Amino acid sequence: MLTEIHINNLITIHTLHLEFCGGTTVITGETGAGKSILIDAIELALGNRASNDKVRPGQEKAEISICFDVSKLVDARLWLDHYDLSQENNECILRRVIYQDGRSKSFINGMPTTLQPLRELGELLIQIHGQHEHQSLLKIDHQRKMLDHYAGHQHLLDTVSHLSDEWHILNKQITQLRKRQTERNTRMTFLNFQLEELKALQLTQDEFQALDLEHKQLAHAGELLQNLNHALNVLTDHEENNALRSIHQALHGLELIQQVDPKISVWIESLNAIMIQISDTEDGLRHYLNTIEIDPARLSWVEDRISLLFDTARKHKINPQELYDLQCRLSLELNELENSDLQLSELEQKLLHIEKQYHDNAIKLSKSRTKAATNLNTIITTTIHQLSLNHAQFEVYLESDKTTVISPYGLEKIIFHIKTNAGQTMQPLAKIASGGELSRMGLAIHLAAADQHHTPTLIFDEVDVGIGGATAEMVGKLLRKLGQSHQVLCITHQAQVAAKGHQHIRVEKTQSEHSTRTQVYTLSQDERTRELARMLGGVEITKTTLAHAKELIETIAEI
Q: At 433, is the pLDDT very low, low, confident or very high (cuts 50, 70, 90)?
C-alpha cells in the first residue's frame, strides 16, 4: 500500500511530507485549493508525461517521491525481483524529478529508469478512477474493456488478439497469391521469354567487371608493354646502369667501413631489404608482363561482348553488372509461380488451423464474458439500488459482432444496457442515462471492478460528483467497506462521503501578494468535525452544523 509521499516545488506546493494509513482516506478542501495536485503528483511519480509548468515558479526543479509497502503484494515483488530492484525491507520508492527546461528523471528504489517500466510497476500498485471517466462509460470500446478487466481473462484476450493478427496477415498473403495466380500464365510466359534471352548470354557472376578490366588491358597493351619493359630496364636489365647494380655497389662500400662505426650496419640492413624488395618487384613485373599480349581479335570479341551486355541491360533498364542478379531473381519468381498451387494449398491449410484455434479461444472468451456479465449484472444492479436508483436494472449485452470475420476482440460487442424506472425497456447506457444517473452507474461499476481485483491502492477523484444527501452517505459507506480490503484514497466535496473515511486529509491554499501555496494536513478528530461542518454549512460554522457533523461521524459505528 501507499505509505508516504514527499513533494518539493510542485506547482503551488513548496514542500510536503504526508503519511497514509490503510483503509479509506478522504481528501477535502475548498474548490481550487489544490486537491487534484496530490493526484497529479502520484500520476507523475507513476510515469505520466511531465511539462515544465509543473515546476513551482522561480524554482529549478520539482521532486516527487512516493513510498509503498509491498510486503503483501506478490505481483509487485515478482516484478521488482525480475529487474533486480527489490529491497530487503519490502519498501518500493518511486521518485521523479522534473526540471524547468522540460527534462525529467525517474528512479525505482534509487535506480534510474525510463517511464515505461515506471508505468508497468504503477499498474501493480495503484488504480486511479477519475471524475471524467463517467463519459467514457458511453463508449462501447470502454465498456468492453471494463467487462474484460472485471472478468480477469487477460491471457484469453492476448491469445485471441494474437491469433487474429496471424489470421489477417496470412489471409492477406493468400489473397495476394490468388491474385498472382490469375495473372500467372501471362507472367510465366513473360518470365520464360526474358529468361531465354538471359540464359542465351550464358552469364556468369561478376562477368561484366572482369570484361571491363580485360578490355582496359587489351586496349592499352602496347602502352603496358612499353612501360613495363622500361621499368624492368631501370631496375635490373640495363647492363651498366640499373638500380639493383647501383644499390649493390653502395652496399659493398658500406660493408668495407662497417668496422669503423657500428651504426653503419643499420643502413646495410636497409639496403639488403631494398634489394630483396627490388627482386620481388622484378618477379611480379615479369609475371605480369608475360600475361600481356597484343590480341586484336580478343579485343574485338571483348568489345562485342560488352556491347551486347549493355544492349541487354538497357532493355531491362538496369546496369550491365546487374544482369546476373536479374536472371537469378526471375528464375526464383518463375519457380515460385510454378509451385504456387502447392504454396497456396499449404497457406490455406494453415489459415484453417489458425481459424479453428481462434474460434476455440474466442468461444472460451465468450463464455468467460458471459459468466462475468451475469455476476456484474447482479452486483451493479444491487449497488445502484443502494444509490437511490431503486427501480433501475443493469445488464451487459453480448451482441454478435458481424462487422469483421476475425476480430481481435472476440466474437461479440459488449454493450451496457440499463433501465432506470419500472415499466421501461432496457436501453443502451448512452441513450438513457442522465448525468446524475451516469455518475452513479460509473461509481457502481468502479466499485464492482475494484472489489474483484487485487490492485492494492485505489484512488477515486471526485467520482461522487452530482450526488448528495442519502445517496452520498451510501457512497461513503461503500467506499469505507471497500477500504476493508483495499487502501482507498477519495477526493470528495460531499460531507456524507468524507465522514466515512478512516483518515481525513484537508488541502488548503494560502495566497500572498507574491506567491500561492498549497498545504496539506492530516486532521485530528476535532479538526475533522469542523471540516465536515464547513462542508455542510459553508463559511460560517454554527452549533447546528457542528452537531450535524458529529452525527455523521458517529454513524461510522453503524457500518
A: low
pLDDT for the residue numbered 110: 92
Does a structural domain hold residue 358?
no
Residues 6+ apart with CB under 8 A from 220: none
The pLDDT of residue 212:
83
Angle at 208 between CA 206 and CA 213, to 5 degrees: 100
C-alpha grid cell, residue 350: 494453415
Kindly tell me if the per-residue pLDDT of 134 is higher than 60.
Answer: no
CA dist., res. 160 & res. 394, Å (int): 28
Q: What is the pLDDT of residue 371?
A: 95
**Banded pLDDT at 50 (limits 50, 70, 90):** confident
Mean confidence (pLDDT) of the chain: 86
In 3D, which of 373, 444, 454, 442 has the Cα closest to residue 127?
A: 454
Q: How far apart are CA 256 and CA 419, in angstroms?
A: 121
Predicted confidence (pLDDT) at residue 537 exceeds the cutoff of 70: yes
131: which residues sit within 8 A by CB, 6+ positions away?
461, 462, 463, 465
Q: The whole model's pTM is what?
A: 0.61
Q: Within this chain, do residues 247 and 110 fall inside the same structural domain, yes or no? A: no
Rounded CA-CA distance 291/278 in Å is 20
Check whether residue 216 and residue 126 sit in a common domain: no
Q: Is residue 301 domain-resident?
A: yes
- Residue 233 is classified by DSSP as I
CA angle at 399 for the pair 394 and 400, rounded to the nearest 5° = 165
One domain for residues 128 and 192: no
Q: How many structural domains compose the chain?
A: 2
- Report d(CA 495, CA 391) in Å as an integer: 26
Instruction: Tell which of 311, 338, 365 closes a domain.
Output: 338
Residues 120 and 203 reside in one and the same domain:
no
Residue numbers of the domain that contains 334: 185-338
The residue out of 338, 360, 383 marking a domain boundary is: 338
